[in-house]
Amino acid sequence: MKRKPWIITAAALLCALAIRAQSAQDTLRFSLQEALTYATEHAFENISADHDIEEAKKKVWEYLAKGMPQVNVSGQFSDNLSLQENIFSMAFEDGTVQTIKAKFGQKYNMNLAGNASQMVFDGTYFLGVRASKIYVELSEKNKVKTEIAVREAVTESYYLALIARKNLENFQENLQVMEQTLLETTAYYQNGFREQTDVDQVKLMVNTQKNLVLEAQRQQLITQVVLKYAMGIAMEQPIKLSDQLDQLIIPVEAQLMNIDTFHYESNIDFSIMETQEEAQRLILKNEKMQFLPKLDAFFNYNYIRFGDKLNNTDKTNASMWGLTLNVPVFASGMKRSRVNQEKIKFLKLQNQKTQLQEGLKQTHLIAQSNLENAKAVYQNNKEGEEIAERIFEKTRIKFANGLSSSTELSQNESQYIQAQMNQIQSTINLMKAHIEYKKAISQL
User: Which of 131, 137, 307, 337 has the most CB atoms lying inside 10 A of its own CB?
Assistant: First the structure.
């Protein structure tokens, strides 16, 4: 049966539309806030930090178990295939000596033993439980620090992806303008109103714009790949950014900076340092506790069966309980030396804490200065790009009307491209400075 052409065309069109709809459905769209939310759950670093917290919690239970009753049961069954013969020499009154061989033991032996112990007093145990909980707290704070690092990476990558997209759009528009100028110049040349040099000069400008478009496309691809990795998205998963660059720049330019709003206590690094200080305080106490006695209770039970036949055995049992006291008396100053070492470590941590306070203040002041400078440079380059665009557009119109040379057009185009490059770089610097400032004031 011969199919009609219109049926084949309709089927192909429906198939193409289905593929396009599926592709659009599979594409994930993210605003900056949505990207940050997604990364909180899926970023590789955050997942690893969650595992670290779970591991730390298991460590707490491991240490708690040391202070709970410990019960061990063991059993043994043996079949003596051949009992060892023992030789005895017996001397009689008449002076004769007789050698006797004898076997001791039974063919079958069964033993069941149980042991239970309970810690009664150990000062180091209670400190160890507290220290293990601090370890969990430290893991949780390290996760917060990891989340901040992930948010920083995602925010920066998102900004760079938007800048790359905007950059590509600008260069594509420039290329369209120059290609139109080339068509017009070629037409004038063919009618004798332009020289070959003018056509060649415009062709060079078109090629320059093409190269810029290619580079912008490469940068757009790279920035999206980096963003996917930071968010924890598979490389083959297509994504689309829903925010616009201009919308995100507005709050950055309006960022209010006030040194009085800075509090180093809210910084995650300072919080981690405080936890480390508390952990070191417990380590010092633990070393001091080594001078105290330790008391444990125990209970043992043994049940034994033995005989030459399995169906006819005798039994016996034994049990015992008691206390074990361990009192440290003399250790040649070793424990005292450990205490002194931990004291020194504690003093070092206090000094590092003070150093961190001043370092955070320094970081805040530098971040504030960098953001102020980045804003000023951005505004200057933004105005410079607008001026360069007006100059280039006027020169292009003059060139189209024969009032300007191709050399002047090329120079103004180069000036315009450089102004665009400067604006792109200043936008990148502004966004990075804003991220660093928000990180410095613990608002990232």
Answer: 131
Dmax (CA) for the chain in angstroms is 154
| Residues paired with 316 in a beta bridge | 304
- As a residue count, the chain comes to 444
pLDDT tops 70 at residue 9: no
- What's the chain look like in SS3? CCCCHHHHHHHHHHHHHHHHHHHHHHCEEECHHHHHHHHHHHCHHHHHHHHHHHHHHHHHHHHHHHCCCEEEEEEEEEECCCCCEEEEEEECCCCCEEEEEEECCCCEEEEEEEEEEEEEECHHHHHHHHHHHHHHHHHHHHHHHHHHHHHHHHHHHHHHHHHHHHHHHHHHHHHHHHHHHHHHHHHHHHCCCCCHHHHHHHHHHHHHHHHHHHHHHHHHHHHHHHHHHHHCCCCCCCEEECCCHHHHHHHHHCCCCCHHHCCHHHCHHHHHHHHHHHHHHHHHHHHHHCCCCEEEEEEEEEEEEEEEECCEEEEEEEEEEEEEEECCCCCCCHHHHHHHHHHHHHHHHHHHHHHHHHHHHHHHHHHHHHHHHHHHHHHHHHHHHHHHHHHHHHHHHHHHCCCCCHHHHHHHHHHHHHHHHHHHHHHHHHHHHHHHHHHHCCCC
Q: Specify whether the CB–CB gap between 275 and 269 falls below 8 A.
A: no
pLDDT value at 217 more than 60: yes
Q: Given this model, what pLDDT does residue 194 score?
A: 87
Task: For residue 96, give every residue at least 6 positions away whose Cβ sits within 8 Å of its Cβ, in sequence order, or none.
Answer: none
pLDDT value of residue 224: 94
| Termini Cα distance of the chain | 68
pLDDT for residue 1 is more than 90 = no
- Give the integer Cα–Cα distance in Å for 42 and 139: 18
